[in-house]
Amino acid sequence: MPKVSVIMASYNHERYVGQAVRSVLEQTCQDFEFVITDDGSTDRTAAEIAKFADSRIKFFLFPANRGQFVATNHCLREATGEYIAVLNSDDAFVPEKLERQVKFLDDHPEVGAVFCQARIIDEQGCVVQGKAPFLFENKSRFEWLNRFFYKDNRLCHPSVLIRRQCHEIVGGYDDRYAQLADYDLWIRVCLRYEIHIMAEELVAFRWLPRNANMSARRPDSIRRRSWEHRRILDNFLSIQDRDFFVRVFPEARKYADDTPQELLPFVLARLALHARSRRQAHQAFAVDTIFRLLGDPRTAEALRRRFGFDYRDFIAITGQYDVFNAFALRQVRSQPRKSLTGLWDTMRRRLGGFRSGG
């Protein structure tokens, strides 16, 4: 069994994939296998990969495009290493990346996954100054979960080295997500394990022009992120231990300390409604959660007794929060053409702003 399985889902990156593959083969840590699944590329990506004759490469080819995380999960199923490293086919590892991170996980068994800093490079591989899309400071897993709930994902996906055991326990990537599958995975990991960010820049993350990155702010990605974000917030409903809940959300202590365990989702929904970001995803999550709770008459009665909250309060909430932008759209349609730009910009700000690290 190799120490590390490097997995890579490739797609239409013939210009960059050779550098990506070489950056793995030239690692100072040579105890690895390299599992690559090409996701039905229509350019010469697969041909560029096939140029490398190395027994550690396990190369699979999808006949048609199926999606980045379908291909990534295929790599995971084929991986046999103790640790899993992830590489995008347009990014690259620094030569010491695996060696440094393997040593860290070997020395820190309490940590489930280790990340690192990323240097941002352009199409030509030159370092881009001034772009800092990723977070650098370390937090406890409880602090990370709090940030993941209220804000966004600022971890660099191809910087991770994660224990295979983590995937065996929390699962792989969700094939249904395209924008935020890594964010979904980090939440599930932090529900069970600590994570750590190393200070070194050990991965080169390529920033492509014309919004070509999967995480770029395009109309389709903004819409998709909003939907995926709403669904991913459901991960937090799995927190059923009151002490754990308060460690993640210390601001809810005054409500949660004497709240029955089965009503913690209501406390979480109220936190979402009052989140400073006021994203539609949080509001839709809150409304859906309270709706489900009120569907059980016994839970509805418990909410009335503990919080003085009943069906009329819920109906008031559904009239207060415009989770589908229905009122905003009506305003747009009723405005003169010259004022549409400002209204659309406002709606984009409400729906957008979410970053993924992939």
Keywords:
358 residues; 2 domains; 15% strand; single chain; 8 strands; 8-stranded mixed beta sheet; alpha/beta; Spore Coat Polysaccharide Biosynthesis Protein SpsA, Chain A
What's the helix and strand layout?
Layout: E1 4-10, H1 17-25, E2 32-38, H2 45-50, E3 57-61, H3 68-78, E4 83-86, E5 92-93, H4 97-107, E6 111-121, H5 141-150, E7 161-163, H6 164-170, H7 181-190, E8 194-206, H8 219-232, H9 242-248, H10 253-256, H11 264-273, H12 280-294, H13 297-307, H14 311-320, H15 326-334, H16 340-351
Parallel strand pairs: 1-2, 1-4, 2-3, 6-8
Antiparallel strand pairs: 4-7, 5-8, 6-7
- How would you name the CATH homologous superfamily of the largest domain? Spore Coat Polysaccharide Biosynthesis Protein SpsA, Chain A
Beta content = 5-15%
Main beta sheet: strand number and arrangement? 8 strands, mixed
- Structural class computed from helices and strand pairing: alpha/beta
Question: What is the CA-based Rg, rounded?
Answer: 22 Å
For the largest sheet, list the strands in their spatial order: 3-2-1-4-7-6-8-5
Instruction: Show unreliable segments.
Output: 351-355
Mean pLDDT figure: 90
